[in-house]
Amino acid sequence: MLKSILNTQKIIISAALVLTAACSNSKFSGGQSLDQPLNSTQGETPVVIPSTPTVQTPPIIQVPPNTEVPMPTTQNPPVVETPPSQPVIPTEPVPPTQSEQPTAPVVVNPPTEPAPVTPPSQCVPVSEISQLTKILFLVDTSGSNRGFFGLGGTDSHKKFRLGSIQNFFSRYQGKTNFEWGFMTFSGHSASDFVGHDGENSFATNPLLMQKALNHFSQVRDSGNTPYKAALNHALRAIEKDPDVHSAKNPQYFVILLSDGFPTDIDEPEEIKNNIQKLLDTSPHNVSLSTVFYGHKHEWDADEAIELLTSMAQMGNGQFANATDPKSTINIDYLIPQPAVCPK
Question: Among 275, 273, 257, 269, which Cα is nearest to 319's?
Answer without folding.
Answer: 257
